[in-house]
Write a structure and sequence with these properties.
The protein has 81 residues and is α+β, with helices and mostly antiparallel strands. It contains 2 helices and 3 strands; from the N terminus they run H-E-E-E-H. Strands 1-2-3 form a 3-stranded antiparallel beta sheet, covered by helices on one side.
């Protein structure tokens, strides 16, 4: 099995609920391409969308949603950073 898949399984097994943060589109010079993603829990992160201020804001927003949402959301949402 791929080590990334093993790492992902271990992360999900340890963290419980997570939020998916994905780069939907890019314009100009960006650190990551569309489709780059990370998973955010209240205490850990798996992956990166490129670092910097945008990633920090995305992590903060994802954790706000996780703390305020009483149950997991399915599908997408209109929440954007």
């Amino acid at each position: 099995m791929n080590s990334k898949v093993q790492d992902l399984k271990a992360f999900l097994g340890q963290t419980g609920r997570v939020a998916l943060v994905e780069v939907a589109a890019t314009k100009g010079s960006t650190p990551r391409e569309a489709g780059a993603f990370m998973l955010v829990s209240t205490s850990a992160i798996f992956g990166t969308i490129g670092g910097g201020q945008l990633e920090y804001m995305a992590i903060d927003k994802a954790r706000q949603i996780l703390r305020s949402s009483p149950s997991p959301r399915g599908g997408g949402s209109d929440d954007e950073v």
